Amino acid sequence: MKFIAAAKLPLLLERLGRHSQVYAPVAVDGRVWLSPWTGEDIAGGYVNPVNSLKTLVYPQTEAVLEFEGGETDVTVREASPPAPQVIFGGRPCDAAGLDLIARVFMEGPFVDELFRRRREATTIMTVACRQAAPSCFCRAMGLSPASERGSDVLFFPGPEGYLVEALTEAGEQILEQAAGLLDDATGDQARRACQELPVPLAGDLNTVRLTPEEGFEHPYWEHLARRCRSCGTCTYLCPTCYCTALFDVTRGTRGRRLRGWDCCQFKDFLLMAGGHNARPQKKQRVRNRFLHKLSYHPANYGEQACVGCGRCVDNCPVCLHMAGVLKDLGEVERA
Amino acid sequence: MSERESRLRSLAEELLASGQVRTFIGFGPGYEPSRPLPWFAQDPAGAAQLLLNPFCGATLARYLLDDGSPGPVGVLARGCDGLGIERLLADRRVSRDRVHVVGVTCRGAVDPDKAYREAGDTPLSAELEGERVLLTTASGTREFPRASCLYDRCLSCADPSPRWADDWLDEPLPPGKREFPDVAGLEQQDADRRYAFWTRQFSRCLRCHACRQACPACHCVSCSLDHPEWLDGGISLDNNFMYHFTRAYHVAGRCIACGECQQACPAQIPLMLLNDKFMRDIRDLFGVCHPHRPQEKEPLGQFCPDDPEGWREGGAQP
Ligand code: SF4
Ligand code: SF4
Ligand code: SF4
Ligand code: SF4
Prior knowledge:
By secondary structure, chain A is an alpha+beta fold.
């Protein structure tokens, strides 16, 4: 294992920035965001950035292609391939979340080329956690403040700097580029501190599974949905939500086809051509979010679509969140 | 249990038992004591769980839009909830005979995030005493200044009680005067600095619509922000500006200053600054003393043939 002094971290990012777009945690009006890095102070002391790693690999909207033409001839140009990027400062839960959605986009017979290109152009330098928020529940979801899943390099923060461990080939390449900035590690307290960090919401929540047959018409969904406001906060902040919309934006004879996030909580999420809405009621939409994460996703991929990052816990304006639902469902099952 | 809380429970129970209301909307137990949840009591057992304490946060008026059940709905109303209900009535989205308002006088709601930051631990209970807030955590009770614990909206609140109610839990307090201190600060900056400020704010907008969905004035059945012919879904700075121009103009003259949009925003965009700017201008240009309270004659919501329209006749713009 290697060590990098805190003062040398900006030098490393600068070096990586010669060939890649670098992102780092930066405080903007009091909250930390993973932002394009151009030498700003690298934020510390945050638990999790507002935006998850997902947002940089699967952007909120991106161009699929551009087109121009009249009624008979149309020229179509594919969007240019993404530039290489290095992201420093995401947390282990988010790196796991990125790996989780990468399975959706890249495993199986249909590979999503847009996602694949950007994922493959991205190197993830995760910083393990030395503090957890009251809303964190990674351990309950089978992860930990030091989990390796989805990361290329793992940084363990200590008082003077970081222990650095490469986990993949891309990670090894980063360490090669860091030559001269790294020392040999003298101990592994920082790593152990991360591994042993207590996380407030514990338990074996990752064994909770819902079977739609049993739970589909449970009055619980109605009870839960009454307070939902049908906004996009929970799904847009979630590192494991991946619903996609495809749409054209046209101006005169030119246009772009964009692909971007959709949100199952919006009232027109399943509004079809012809006017039929397959989920007009809030109850149906809220139920879908949790059944997707706790039933359909586990059925297809063998794991829940939640990594316990706590964003929905912290940000849903009416506290309708995964930690709460998992707790409730534990009770529902026992009852 | 406070006296007001027990009064609320028995009142709600009565209303439900007698069939006067089908649902009673208030606050009930959440996952932690500092975060009571919007609560929809439908029977006496549900009413018995109603809570009333300084952690009751989210505003409730908008839930009146969701209720599909026939017959009236009871709702707990602090000042901000009361104005929200008035907004929905004035905009004819809810009819008066479908809502039964239980008024309560509010001295401010404690923001659990601020309380956690102040106390350094999860707050278990809070009490308001004049300019102080007493926060109790596992390690005891300590005092903090009101200004560092209350929701932003409560710090500038001029409406502790609703203006009317069908039942009261306590004595209403008269409304005060709302000031707009932050607007002047922004106006003093030159256009470039203001543009840079709003660029920084709007560039991080997620277009999650949490602001719209929180707002008792943003209740159109079909919102222009959902229509790609008005605003496409592409995330870009100009689209985000467009989103915010539209939102701010559409609530101008109808915003009730509950601050729920800003409270809901996960990107912490200071939306109230825009809303306040409109309200301050409406006060100064139209001579409306309390622009956030629904008026009999809405300054921007009515057409008067004798309005001065200088710009039409080729004169100077007002
Ligand atoms: S659960 Fe919360 S964050 Fe999600 S749509 Fe409903 S109100 Fe918004
Ligand atoms: S469901 Fe909530 S806690 Fe789970 S990954 Fe998504 S935002 Fe994080
Ligand atoms: S805005 Fe006013 S009435 Fe509403 S919760 Fe705050 S202090 Fe109470
Ligand atoms: S709540 Fe905030 S982030 Fe969401 S759309 Fe409104 S301003 Fe943008």
